[in-house]
Amino acid sequence: MVLTEMLQHTVPYDPKIRGTDEMKFIFILCIRSVTHLMRNTREVFEDYEKIINKSTEDNMKNETHGSGEEAILPPVKCTQSPHSYFAECLYYTMKEAGTYGGTLIRNIVSRSEIDLNLIKCQFQEVYGKTFRSTIMASHEFPTLKSV
Fold it and tell me: What pLDDT does 77 receive?
């Protein structure tokens, strides 16, 4: 079954039933490979957004809460724009009260050989300051300044 057709099944046919079937959505995200989701994501989510008449991310924020939202939003964000997703992760890691050094370092190291430079560019575009200046402003982890 084509991914777009599978996503159509998450939207109820009966107008009396409101909402998205989150379990079906999670199932779809889990059975597809990351490569398949990344390769086809733009077209698939555009088709899905036509069905639901709003963005996939907005729909998931409205339809899910708590752990369901935490389970669905990261894969949706990451498949739509990995650089934006990781820039957001890095930003919130440094923004939180008490920088999460382990999480920050893990994110930097895991993306360093893949696309860290593109993530840095996206970080600057979205947040209006360089990734480096944000790290330099972090007073809690002086060892991060070498990154």
Answer: 84
